[in-house]
Write a structure and sequence with these properties.
Strand content: 15-25%
Number of strands: 13
Radius of gyration: 20 Å
Largest sheet: 5 strands, mixed
Number of helices: 10
Bound molecules: zinc ion
Distance between the termini: 11 Å
């Protein structure tokens, strides 16, 4: 197969790219996401794809969507942030554009991109943990993306790490996502600021805000990079949760490499160092087994497009 299209459906933007067999994006376009309209999203995805199909010889289309996707890769079963419920998105878009279409979970698509073309291209067994607002996961075993019986394997962000912990958007309590995600970082920063802690006050002034509600993840990361002690401590905590969660995940899948992607990779060593330390301390039987490597993702926010496009080649 030659060129395929990868489409990353985000909460605000639909990003589409034409991708070659080396994982290089050779053309791109985008549309805004009409988040509340199921028909509107299918229309916008189809329009972005049609624009690219007009100018390139395209053999298939892969759509990366944040949600549970059926094992036959046609239907979004459930999406927490968009209006999809049992939505036959793949079939709908295929009918409009006249090309084969597959739908993939967005974190699986990102993991696949890192496996084929990025940080994990030299290994056969890897786990990718995508830490953004929430936490997504993708697992590759023996060179194959792990899909599970119903298509929803690898939801690593919803592994329970704290009994009776914080309530999660999935309905359960104590999920890893509630402790090691961008949303968790902001929740902790705001709570610290509302407590009146002096360090948090200094961090707010570093960030240029006076109301704790105005703090954002990128602001906190920026403050930490400038050396702010409170920001550093918050990222250190996030890294510790992430490293401990990684130890449990490694116990299940025995990868040779764990890749951290998503917005957190912007924080680099500020998270990686504490994650690595917590991982090394927490891994069961740590003295009696090989440890996998832990690395940051290489493809940034293009991983979703590249991975979805490449998975459109896998029939
Ligand atoms: Zn959850």
């Amino acid at each position: 197969m030659g060129l395929t299209i990868g489409i990353d459906v985000g909460g605000t933007k639909i990003a589409a790219g034409v991708v070659d067999t080396d994982g290089t994006i050779v053309a791109r376009t985008h549309r805004m996401t009409p988040a509340l309209s199921v028909d509107g999203i299918a229309e916008s995805i189809s329009a972005a794809a049609a624009e690219l199909i007009d100018k390139h010889d395209i053999e298939g289309v892969g759509i990366g969507a944040a949600g549970f996707v059926s094992s036959d890769r046609t239907t979004v079963l459930f999406a927490p942030n968009l209006a999809w419920r049992d939505e036959p998105l793949g079939t709908r878009v295929a009918d409009k554009i006249g090309k084969p279409v597959v739908v993939e979970n967005d974190a699986n698509a990102a993991a696949w991109a890192e496996f084929q073309f990025g940080a994990a291209k030299h290994v056969e067994d890897m786990v990718c943990i995508t830490v953004g607002t929430g936490i997504g996961g993708g697992v590759v075993v023996d060179g194959q993306l792990l899909r599970g019986a119903f298509g929803v394997a690898g939801e690593l962000g919803h592994m329970r790490v704290v009994p009776d912990g914080h309530r999660c958007g999935c309905g359960a309590r104590g999920c890893l996502e509630q402790y090691a995600s961008g949303r968790a970082l902001v929740r902790e920063a705001r709570a610290l600021a509302e407590s009146g802690a002096l360090g948090a006050m200094q961090m707010m002034s570093e960030c240029g805000v006076t109301d704790p509600a105005d703090l954002t993840g990128p602001m906190i990361t920026e403050a930490a990079q400038q050396g702010d002690p409170c920001g550093r401590e918050l990222l250190d905590d996030l890294g510790r949760w992430l490293g401990e969660g990684t130890a449990s995940i490694v116990t299940m899948f025995d990868p040779s490499l764990v890749v951290y992607g998503g917005g957190v990779s912007a924080a680099g060593d500020l998270v990686l160092t504490s994650a690595q330390r917590a991982f090394d301390r927490t891994l069961p039987a740590r003295a009696n087994r090989p440890h996998p490597g832990i690395a940051l993702a290489l493809l940034g926010n293009e991983a979703g497009i590249i991975g979805a496009a490449d998975l459109a080649r896998q029939r």
